[in-house]
Amino acid sequence: MKKKLLISDIAKQLNVSITTVSFILNGKAKEKRISDDLTERVQKLVEEVGYRPNQLAQSLRTGKTRTIGLMVEDISNPFFANIARLIEERAYQEGYKIVYCSTEDDSDRTKELISMFRDMHVDGYIITPPQGVEEDVEKLIKDGFPVVLVDRQVAGIHTHCVIVDNLSGAYNATAHLMEQGYQNIAFVTTDSRQSQMLQRLEGYRKALAEKQLEPAVLEVPYRYDAKQMLRKIVSFFEETESIDAVLFATNYMAVRGLEAISQFNPQGLPANLGVASYDDHDVFKLLKPTITAVAQPTEAIANHVINLMLHLLNPKNKTSEADTIVLPTQLIIRNSTPRKEVVA
Amino acid sequence: MKKKLLISDIAKQLNVSITTVSFILNGKAKEKRISDDLTERVQKLVEEVGYRPNQLAQSLRTGKTRTIGLMVEDISNPFFANIARLIEERAYQEGYKIVYCSTEDDSDRTKELISMFRDMHVDGYIITPPQGVEEDVEKLIKDGFPVVLVDRQVAGIHTHCVIVDNLSGAYNATAHLMEQGYQNIAFVTTDSRQSQMLQRLEGYRKALAEKQLEPAVLEVPYRYDAKQMLRKIVSFFEETESIDAVLFATNYMAVRGLEAISQFNPQGLPANLGVASYDDHDVFKLLKPTITAVAQPTEAIANHVINLMLHLLNPKNKTSEADTIVLPTQLIIRNSTPRKEVVA
DNA sequence: TTTATCCGCTAAATCCTTTTAGCAAATAAG
DNA sequence: CTTATTTGCTAAAAGGATTTAGCGGATAAA
């Protein structure tokens, strides 16, 4: 295990000062009027011996770690996993590392994680905020850290934010089901008061109201595990028999819900049932009845988020106004009829 | 933005030396014979003012970051996302952070990531290694870093390793299909030479050989995207019409493959086709024909990995022999008949 | 009485950079 | 011929902790 090279080793080799080497390595050769000749010799040696500055020492001195903290609700949820993956990709290209973790939508846990990230000296924060962390996040902002919220907004936090048009998404999905002739459309959602969930509910209600149809909403407690959720959905369907179509508020609820439904029909899902889901899923196209889905623009979300963050991290940019980016969803219609895709 | 507290602030407040405070905070009060009285006063003040040591300074001095680098093939793959999630959970409990990233099974990328992790001074490495990184990983080991491999082995790397019994898993799935009466069982896999894939292939071949059945293997190039993969599978089925059952080597190939199959049957998947998949998937139970799956013990994998890593990170433990842990899979049989689960 | 040991704590070195302030020699300006 | 300015580089401080080596006085052992 050969011992790590130090900047002093480089300096000694070339009979120059540490300062000079540091300037050159940090691209300040010109600014500090180091001769081109010396600049080259230093760069050549550094290259040859493979010297790499100690990042801890660098960070200690500069206060920057070139690390971004990413807190999603659940990294094992494909929606977040995909976004994380795309953000990570871009971040690495720009010389940033990503540290991520799952909040589980728990405010205490989230507070702890924020504090952990502070301890780690991350340069910026990307967060899908649960309720109840307003103060902690506002504190981050007040302390001058770049903060970008994703997927949901929280009243009381005034910062940059990337979300999708949940209301229209749910509205369009519901409208589509109505166009197909369904009259008793249920909405299965969670009981959490996350903004994106409330907006989806509103979109559903709005579409029904326009046709004077009655809403039928099931709120499954957020903390329910797969089994409990399944049971809850089963009994909901038992109680409200007239239902002929369902809109699920998330893809994992759709999966669980379809499982519940199939318990009625050992032969499989009833072909006459109308099913739509907020958030698409790889396997929806395999199911019968095929499932219409509100696809979220994960790539666009990730791109906007990381662009915003990189912009904020660049000291050259003045701190711009907090702006909210709302991205459109796409309704992916999967009927027996030829499939079309329509921008919502 | 109140300025950060320093250890010197604490020391000054109590008229003691920085050293003393440091000893107390690091649990060396007894060892260094600091009086109980002073120890308490220091702890009380630290608590009151909320002092937290600067981790960068700590790490610079100690050389430890309490960070573990986790490199999986693809964090957006549910199998890895789940493992990552579980590992993260335990790591946080033990005061370790996890930094993770996706190798995409690309050796150059992986080498870069290893080098990045070194620069970050992570304390340990958890890796799903692609081919071609033997030297780099061996170097890590030689330099004294704890390294644990997951999901696959690579010849030439001699270190701790947690894998599953791929051969038996594939063997059991194939045997099950044969018991159901299927005679022409295809195996759809990737062309990558990853150890776990080769073992699955071997399990499949072994089962067929015992009954003198002919194998029919399709290797889809690893770099193919969803569309290309689909096309490849479609043409395979067209060419080999006699096939009456398929074993897919991964769950994402299964999803793609089922899509391909359903292109023949606009009504849905043919009910008489036998389908099994290595790696289970949330939605398999919704499909017709239901899909028998080789479930991997994600929780056990994650637990073994993190336990091993924590053990290695503990300086009290002598460096133990490199050992390979092989975990059993579970064959989840989903037939029209009542579902049973059998340990493989 | 002398020597050794223990007690309770601390000064200073160390980890490895970046950055501020400035020096000595050479050139330009007055 | 002074006095500024520029040039090319550097010494030393700073960043915030951990850790080694040790100090002066009190007690115990010989």
Radius of gyration of chain A (CA) equals: 26 Å
How far is it from the N-terminal to the C-terminal residue of chain A, by CA? 59 Å
Largest interface: A-B, 47 and 46 residues
Number of helices of chain A: 12
Query: Going by CATH, what is the homologous superfamily of the largest domain in chain A?
Result: Response regulator
Strand content of chain A: 15-25%
Sequence of strands across the biggest β-sheet of chain A:
7-6-8-9-10-12-13
Structural class given helices, strands, pairing of chain A? alpha/beta
Instruction: Give, in order, the helices and strands of chain A.
Output: HHHHEHEHEHEEHEHEHEHEEHEEE
Mean pLDDT of chain A: 90
- Flag low-confidence runs of chain A: 336-344
Organism (chains A, B): Pontibacter anaerobius
GO molecular function (chains A, B): DNA binding
Protein name (chains A, B): LacI family DNA-binding transcriptional regulator
InterPro entries (chains A, B): HTH_LacI, LacI/GalR-like_sensor, Lambda_DNA-bd_dom_sf, Peripla_BP_I
